[in-house]
Amino acid sequence: MRTTIRLLLPILLAIMLGLFLSSGAQAAGLAVQIGYIQWSPDQGPVLSNVIPEPADAGLRGAELAIDDNNTTGRFLGQTFSLDSVIAESEEQALAALERQLAAGIELFVLRVPATTLTALADKAGPGVLLFNAGARDDALRTGDCRPQLLHTIPSYAMLTDALAQWLNQRRWQDLLMITGPTEADQQWADAFRRASQRFGLNLVAVKPWTFDADLRRTAARELPLFTQTDDEYDAVVVADVRGDFGEFVPFNTWLPRPVVGTQGMTPEAWHRVVESWGAAQLQNRFRELAQRDMTSEDYAAWAAVRSVGTAVTRLNSADAAQVRDFLFSDNFQLAAFKGRKLSYRPWNGQLRQPIPLVHPRGLVAQAPVEGFLHPRTDMDTLGFDQPESQCRIH
Amino acid sequence: MKTLFNTTALAAMIGLSAPAAASLAYVSNEKDNSISVIDTETLAVVETIEVGQRPRGILLSKDYSKLYICASDDDTVQILDLASRRIIDTLPSGEDPEQFSLHPNNRHLYIANEDDAIVTVVDVDTKDVLAQIDVGVEPEGMAVSPDGRWAVNTSETSSMLHWIDTTDFQIKKNLVVGQRPRHVEFSDDSKIAWASAEIGGTVHIIDVDSLEEIKQLTFSIRGVNQDKVQPVGIELTSDGKYAFVALGPANHVAVVDAQTYEVLDYLLVGSRVWQLDLNKDESQLYTTNGVSGDVSVIDVEELKVIKSIKVGRYPWGVVIDPTS
């Protein structure tokens, strides 16, 4: 039965399209092309390499959103397509952008490091709209902003504020923080220091991770000693963005305490355990498409392409300037499976969003935690608020 | 038909030696794979019936002898015989059925297949799939007008109402509404349709003759963040006096004047209120509260919540059998 119906689909579509044309309500045949560029530098060897990150994280989310946009677009005579490039260097990423610009593409989703992101934004100039679906760096939201650059991935500050709110609510205020050696680890740790001040937490000790032993063999011996402190702590916070040593901290601490941060219980843009608010449907669609679980980067890329789709549905235009104006207007609200309508912060282009706090097999909580108030929206208790940011892009 | 039902009911009463039948409310518990049965006289759960996985939308056959259940994770619609309280059959439903609506002919069941962007029409007598209609992303709400002319589907991610002509199963109009439309309810005379948009925070009033929106309602509750005002279920009184709108995580039900579209009141119920149903004489309104796992009972005359009844985990849909 299903097969016959499927065969009839082109005819049905033709009829439906005919109806649109006859009603004259919509101009048919708007084709929207979106550029997707990904480049991830080599992370170097890590200890916790048992479960590798998918290489196409981000891309598959963008592809799913293209499908979603097309399912909607077929009723409005709009088609969406993705020109995607997974580059192997910053030069390749820049070359891809140049080619896509020359092909007339004005809307881009980028999953690249911050330095590459600003290089791409500067090369693209002001006439386009770019979505950052990969770089969590706070500097991109506090000073180094671009009018044409929006961010769908949460910043480090949003993630650590979410975690700090939860720790405050649990009254687990005295903390040991272990920081990794990379620049990203330092950024994460700085963000958490800021969050701990905002939400009344106390770092009883901060210990840099300097070991280079293979912890898979020695974690049980090394870590209990390493996590001894003069003052007692309520929880251990790990700042290990690339996942080098952090997975070995839980259950190996000197005191019997939970581990949170980049490992243990983590704040995320998205995770496979998120299921409320219709999220189960998004997760199902994604798994069917990609044959794996949806990551934060996939979610950020999905949200970017869906933002474009939502704007095009309403505007019946894909002009970058018009889409940008619409995304910053009161008429825009993104339904994105987090139980709230999401919108872009006008000062720095960051997508406001709740942050799930998860462990590998379950959801613990979702920030903003109840009771943390804000005059505009409690989602602005996460990350850099308007007075704390120098950016004024809209 | 009525006589037939009573005979069956009588047989069941003898067979199960059940107490004398009071009016019953049926509640689907999404995370308990069960249906809670509430006695509307005593306002207590009298029975819990195990059903398929992730039961969401439920509805009664037009003769009130059967309860149809969307068992979403079993990809099927189950038929519960109300006399024997047993699952007696299943219907081909397409994947992940969430909500559905039965045509007044008591045969054509319109099912929204959330994962497949399809509406499936099944003949409940022959079990034939009559049509599969491509709709927007995440079809959810399903309603058939009381006069049988239109079947309306809401697609959550496309934010559209798809108007399906029930004579040829073709979409005749796609109406863009607020973000994440969830539910459509027709007035008894089929002239007005009410559609809720969960993320948009709006209810859209549609004139069915012209298929155009004539009014958009918004809601504002003191002390509740505007983002949390998320309309889902809608229920209309047959006298045209009130519309009740479940406002999700705002934990309130809005009372709307169905003539002037003015919001009259907000009633505090349980956490994340989803769906609503009136009892037979419309003196009581039942609400399912997903997060708090209970059902609130509202006195319609007084517009007051009179009771909350603990049911299973994540109660989703509620229907009240007016005959029992």
Can you characterise this structure?
The complex is a heterodimer of chains A (394) and B (324). Chain A is of the alpha/beta class and 394 residues long. Chain A is 38% helix and 17% strand. Chain A has 2 domains: 24-154 and 271-353, Response regulator (Rossmann fold); 157-267, Response regulator (Rossmann fold), CATH 3.40.50. Chain A has helices at residues 2-23, 59-73, 90-102, 114-124, 139-142, 156-170, 183-198, 215-226, 279-290, 296-315, 320-327, and strands at residues 30-38, 78-86, 107-111, 129-132, 149-151, 174-179, 202-208, 235-239, 259-261, 266-267, 334-335, 341-342, 355-359, 362-367. In chain A, the strands form 4 sheets. A 5-stranded parallel sheet of chain A has the order 2-1-3-4-5, with helices on both faces. A 4-stranded parallel sheet of chain A has the order 7-6-8-9, covered by helices on one side. A 3-stranded antiparallel sheet of chain A has the order 10-13-14, covered by helices on one side. Chain A is globular, with a radius of gyration of 22 Å. The N and C termini of chain A lie far apart (53 Å). With 324 residues, chain B is mainly beta. Helices cover 5% and strands 52% of the residues of chain B. In chain B, the strands form 7 sheets. Chain B has a 4-stranded antiparallel sheet, with no helix packed on it. In chain B, a hairpin with a 4-residue loop joins strand 17 (192-197) and strand 18 (202-207). The A-B interface holds A 1-2, 5, 9, 12-13, 15-16, 19, 68, 71-72, 74-76, 278, 281, 284-285, 288, 306, 310, 313-314, 333-335, 339-341, 377-379 and B 92, 94, 96, 114-115, 117, 128-129, 131-134, 136-138, 155-160, 162, 170-172, 174, 176, 179-180, 198-201, 225, 227-228, 230, 249.
